[in-house]
Amino acid sequence: MSRHYLYHMVAFLTVVIWGSTFVFTKMLLQAGLSPAQIFTLRFIIAYVLLFAYELFVCYFKSQTYSLKSQTLKDELLMVALGVMGGSVYFLAENAAMLYTTATNTSLIVCSCPLFTMLLMALVCRKSERFTKTQVFGSLLACTGMAVVVLNGHFVLHLSPIGDLLAFAACLCWVAYSLLTKRLIGTYSIIFVTRKLFFYGLLTIIPYYICCPDEARMFLAPSTAHFTLPTIFNLLYLGVVASLLCFLVWNMVIKKLGAVVATNWVYLNPLSTILFAWWLLNEQITPWLLLGTAFILIGMYLCDRKSKVEAQRSKV
User: Fold this and answer.
1) Is 237 in contact with 39 (CB distance < 8 Å)?
2) CB 192, CB 251: distance < 8 Å
3) What's the pTM value of the predicted model, to 2 decimals?
4) Which of 183, 146, 169, 168 is nearest to 258 (CA)?
5) Which of 80, 97, 141, 241 is the S-S candidate for 266 at Cβ 3.0 to 4.6 Å?
6) Pair 269, 19: CB distance under 8 Å
7) Greatest alpha-carbon span in the chain
8) DSSP string spanning the chain?
9) 297 near 160, Cβ under 8 Å?
């Protein structure tokens, strides 16, 4: 298996895990935890473990531990990374579902690969050129994602506030992808990921100041909420879905590029439905199979350019 396909496999597994987080988050919400509390706890777990790992490596290799970026501009970009890929993204996505349906939220948020391709074409006109086949493939994958989410019920309920919040979350993920591609060219993947967790946690503080009830819930949680299943779910979200997945996702963006990597987000609703079928006994319909076929064919077409370029580089 070539490295190219290996990175695609890693991206696929990452998206499958991220798709499962909706189910595990739902279980935590049912246990009494708030969306902000869940986000904060999972990022704290990820940051502490990554921080400890870096200290351990630096100690045994006699290296200097780096706390800040090389320039102030890069440090500000790290702050933006924590906002776009952490605090504001998760808050916007969770808040969107308070005003609009989960279907609307999924459709808008998971359309981020299209916006990533559009922005890359505008910002990086020389380095990123997309063929008609790639554009068609992205549109086909997006259609497949919509078929999976709608599941045969083609009814959308417009809600300006909720839809705008979902669109904000979508743009946050696009910005996160582009910022990651830029920063990992200068800094290590571990350093960038640690900064993401740190500034994600730091920028959630204003939310707690504006919502004192949420702050009290986080600082003085009820012991009844933290049962063994709840602790397991939090560890899964913190260690697997946050720490490991963000590390490997940043690597995938570095190796495959922001556009190709982000196209895997189209499979996010599919993995959510599969985990819901496994854990919550929800049904799988023929629409799911049709949408999956569209997504896979579309992603294959989107990736044709990168494979051709990889072959040319070897010649």
Assistant:
1) no
2) no
3) 0.75
4) 183
5) 141
6) yes
7) 63
8) --HHHHHHHHHHHHHHHHHHHHHHHHHHHHTT--HHHHHHHHHHHHHHHHHHHHHHHHHHTTPPPP-S-SSHHHHHHHHHHHIIIIIHHHHHHHHHHHHS-HHHHHHHHTTHHHHHHHHHHHH-TTT----HHHHHHHHHHHHHHHHHHHTT-------HHHHHHHHHHHHHHHHHHHHHHHHTTTS-HHHHHHHHHHHHHHTTHHHHHH-HHHHHHHHS--GGG--HHHHHHHHIIIIIIIIIHHHHHHHHHHHH-HHHHHGGGGGHHHHHHHHHHHHH-PPP-HHHHHHHHHHHHHHHHHTHHHHHHHHHHH-
9) no
What is the Cα–Cα distance from 15 to 175, expressed in whole angstroms? 18
Condensed to tens digits (0 to 9), the pLDDT of residues 12-49 reads 888 888 877 777 877 887 788 888 888 899 999 999 99
Residue 241: how many CB atoms within 10 A of its CB? Answer: 21
Q: CA 285, CA 246: separation in Å to the nearest integer?
A: 31
- Which tokens is 14 given? 């990452």
**Distance between CA atoms of residues 151 and 233, nearest Å:** 27
> Which one, of 11, 78, 17, lies nearest residue 249 by Cα?
11
Buried b (16+ CB within 10 A) or exposed e, 77-106: bbbbbbbbbbbbbbbbbbbbbebbbebbbb
| Nearest CA-CA partner of 150 in 277, 264, 269 | 269
- CA–CA dist 215, 232 (Å, integer): 23
Q: How far apart are CA 297 and CA 136, in angstroms?
A: 10
Strongest mean pLDDT among 63-72, 139-148, 285-294: 63-72
- 169 and 98 Cβ atoms separated by less than 8 Å: no
Selection from 291, 293, 270 nearest residue 282 by Cα? 270
Sequence-separated (6 or more) residues with CB below 8 Å from residue 37: 214, 217, 218, 221
